[in-house]
Amino acid sequence: MRGFITAPAGHAGLRLADDLPEPLPAPHEAVVEVRAYAVNHDELNLIARRPDGWRPGQDVAGVVVQAAADGSGPAPGTRVVCYLDWEGWAERIAVPTHRLATLADRVPFEQAATLPIAGLTALRALRVGGAVLGRQVLVTGATGGVGQFAVQLAVAAGAHVTAQVSSPEREAEARALGARQVVTSLEDDTLGPYHLVLDGIGGPQTAQAVRRIAPGGHLAWYGNIGGPAELRLGDFYAQGWNAHVVGFISPVPDETKGEDLAILADLVADGRLTPRVGLTLDWEKTPEALDALARREVRGKAVLTVGGER
Ligand SMILES: NC(=O)c1ccc[n+]([C@@H]2O[C@H](COP(=O)([O-])OP(=O)(O)OC[C@H]3O[C@@H](n4cnc5c(N)ncnc54)[C@H](OP(=O)(O)O)[C@@H]3O)[C@@H](O)[C@H]2O)c1
User: Fold this and answer.
1) pTM of the predicted model, to two decimals?
2) Pairing of strands 136-139, 160-164
3) What would the pLDDT profile of 210-239 be if each residue is shown by its tens digit?
4) CB-ligand 1 contact for 166 (6 Å cutoff)
């Protein structure tokens, strides 16, 4: 079977191997034929850190070819989206049935593949603030992989969303996602106060975001792509008295990943959530997709397609 493995001398630290073993499913795992996968910013770091021969790949959409032996999960032929820890950039994978959700025929594999890491992070981080109906929510890095979902899901939940983007060129993209207000900086004292902030950027901006939180509000801090942040108690005194900064980790809890994927897949099927796919390539070009991601050239998600009927 073919699939990508880490190889430091290879392009983007990868090699497409053709001698991988077929997946050996545990009783609670289905075997899925991969049709599309998405790449995530974090996977750039994982590829650099893992030993030679490690198999990356977390976000996968495809078709069940072998049902789980314990009777859980869907039948062969079912279209699914899957959340893996690794080994997803291959022709076939074994997936625990609590980590997959079925897909309506109208949801393309390319869109579904964007949902696991980025979509779940946005969905679960949004829950940190409880009900957001009619409330102000700030999303930093709003046109990034997670940010695009965070804006759309917050809007779908009834929030008034302020999107922070990296440059004025991103403003139209953020408005198209449903943001009411778009800013490139959080220095403006009149911003907020925000019931909830979803921050994947970090750096000096996080302290500015804390200064815009409403009293008792929350900041779900899920990424620091912009560098380390330094917070002072005084940042909370601006207005966010007794505000909460949550060091947010999206992969827990594990047991409800499939449930959460189903929520996202249904929103896509209903046209209430539209994954933005900025780059689609044949999977043999996975290293090129990773290069584009590292160079910040991808608008939305980068997706790789793996043979077969779409
Ligand atoms: N805690 C968790 O469970 C979890 C889960 C998923 C992701 N993450 C982390 O969340 C962060 C975002 O992930 P992602 O997949 O959304 O990444 P992404 O698709 O690459 O998007 C990153 C966003 O951040 C902006 N950005 C990139 N570098 C920046 C910089 N130096 N300063 C300011 N803005 C910058 C980008 O703006 P441009 O549009 O200009 O490029 C883009 O909007 C990463 O650090 C990732 O590791 C954490």
Assistant:
1) 0.97
2) parallel
3) 999 999 999 999 999 999 999 999 999 999
4) yes
